[in-house]
Specification:
Rossmann fold; 7 strands; about 20% strand; binds S-adenosylmethionine; nucleus; tRNA-binding
Length: about 230
């Protein structure tokens, strides 16, 4: 089924202005990536918090990707509340220009879309758990894939993970902590550094997160910083 997936040979070959027309000519590239973005709740929540930062959702399901793309198109047409005292042209206030989605198998083609050290944030929110042991290699966090995540994240960049499956949480923590280029960072210290809005969105904005809430399930959050080089 990958034959139907379209992906660029390199990130620079991609026509980013198709996804972010309002940013054409700025040379900006996505700085946040939401891997397995599902219905796009995180992107929609973060868009107004970082209006000048480009964000990319990557989703493997065709219809879900189309839904997110249409959702973003509709949101882009909405008018922001008037700001009478502002002298900035109204077009610059048009919201949701900074979020977009691509259909992609992120486990295979992340480096085709994202360059080295391009990202400051990488999200894995409620990833598919793949419960059975023989299916663990299908998990989105693995040693091989962590090398790719370290490659696309800049030093200081942050991986956010959250799940309602305790076993998967422990799996992600163990694998990421064992990887030499990541160190765990507590929710408290991220909040002190000003990432509280992002953490709130990670916990509550996605469709899967809302479902867990409705079912009164527990959520396990774990965040990791990409360090500059291997500790000696
Ligand atoms: N993050 C969203 C949320 O919190 O609502 C969706 C969570 S859902 C349980 C997992 C999503 O990951 C699904 O939409 C699935 O299609 C997507 N997915 C699974 N494997 C993927 C892959 N290799 N590349 C991109 N997306 C993938």
């Amino acid at each position: 089924s990958d034959h139907a997936l379209e992906y660029p040979p390199t990130p620079t070959a991609y026509e980013w202005s198709k996804l972010y027309p309002a940013f054409e000519g700025t040379g900006k590239l996505p700085e946040f990536a939401d891997v397995g973005c599902g219905f796009g709740g995180l992107l929609i929540a973060l868009a107004p918090l970082f209006p000048d930062t480009l964000m990319l959702g990557m989703e493997i399901r065709v219809q879900v990707t189309q839904y997110v793309a249409e959702r973003i198109t509709a949101l882009r047409l909405t008018e922001p509340p008037p700001t009478p005292e502002s002298t900035t042209p109204q077009t610059l206030h048009k919201p949701y220009q900074n979020v977009a989605v691509v259909r992609a198998n992120a486990m295979k083609f992340l480096p085709n879309f994202i360059e080295k050290a391009q990202l400051s944030k990488l999200f894995f929110l409620f990833p598919d758990p793949h419960f059975k042991a023989r299916k663990h290699k299908a998990r989105i966090i693995s040693t091989t894939l962590l090398a790719e995540y370290a490659y696309v994240l800049r030093p200081g960049g942050i991986i956010y993970t959250i799940t309602d499956v305790k076993d998967l949480h422990e799996w992600m923590v163990t694998h990421i902590e064992e990887f030499p280029l990541f160190e765990r960072v507590s929710e408290d210290s991220l909040r002190r550094e000003g990432h509280g809005g992002v953490i709130d969105a990670v916990r509550t904005s996605t469709e899967e997160g809302k479902k867990v809430e409705r079912n009164k399930g527990e959520k396990w959050l774990a965040c990791f910083r990409r360090i500059a080089s291997v500790r000696s």
